[in-house]
Amino acid sequence: MTKEERDIQRKLKVLRQAEKTGHVARTCRYFGVGRSSFYRWKAAYDQCGEAGLVNEKPIPKNPANQTPPEIVEKVLYLRSKYHLGSIRIVWYLARYHDIKISDAGVTRILRRDGIGRLPRGTRMRKVHTKRYNKQVPGHHIQMDVKFLTFIGKRGEKIRRFQYTAIDDATRVRALKVDDKHTQANAIDFVDHIMEKFPFRIREIRTDNGHEFQAKFHWHVEDHGIRHAYIKRGTPQLNGKVERSHRSDQQEFYQLLSYKVDVDLEAKLSEWENFYNFNRPHGAFNEKHPMKPFANGYNLVQSMSQQIVNLTGDIEGVSPLTH
Predict the structure, then answer these.
(1) What is the pLDDT of residues 239-264, one digit of tens each?
(2) How much is the pTM?
(3) Strand ranges (DSSP E) for 40-156?
(4) Model confidence over 95-106: pLDDT tens digits?
(5) Which end of the chain is more exposed for a tag (fewer CB within 10 A), N or C?
(6) Does domain 141-284 have CATH number 3.40.50.300?
(7) What region does 300 belong to: left with phi over 0, alpha with psi -120 to 50, or beta?
């Protein structure tokens, strides 16, 4: 017998004893029950039978601060469609729908709908690895290749390769998709990011893949850029580009239907612009990657102008005025 069933039997016992003796006050004193509770139980029993004796939750049916259904619908849509966590759902609702809700509120909505936590990787970060974050844009660029597999119209597999470069300081990314996985393609991508990024590149860090070997290495070095390899078997040393590939898979490729390469390149360009200029980023507390860089660039420009003005004032001062 469950706790709920025992509680119902106790209430029935009180009601039957009062009916048998015909004395409500004496029965309530004997069982230690308030008369208001007795009459509430009796009214519920007369109306609904034993089902009326089940304890209801101690909350109102329609609380005043209940989350509106339209917000609940948006939360569930973002979770099911884009697999976003609670914090990122809060950012998206605030940025694109002007809706303010706490991450705890989002979590409660998901739990009420029977949705648990997002699956997390089982591999643990190695003990010797230390997290780091560069402060200067271009000081450290992480580069890697994401392998893509699409299904063609006839059911055949189509292999493509996404070349990715991400700046360690600003998280600004450059993306390019190609049909080959060679050093020549990687070299073309280096030339592409040197034109794409709005800052000078000092170092590029890659894994030991065949596309990043001697030809690629010396091409990078010839441009005055240092090329460094990470240790074998330690992808966490290029963790930022690896993590960005997971975002690509969850927020872009799982929603994509491959048609032709031209369509893929156009949509990838849109995704790159959205990632750099609109997508909220956890490392910058909801700001997009270009926002901190723009703020830092404007600060440097302002300081440079102040120095120029100050230098001009000093040069324009005549010794005779002192």
Answers:
(1) 889 988 988 888 888 888 877 888 88
(2) 0.62
(3) 141-151
(4) 788 899 998 999
(5) C
(6) no
(7) alpha
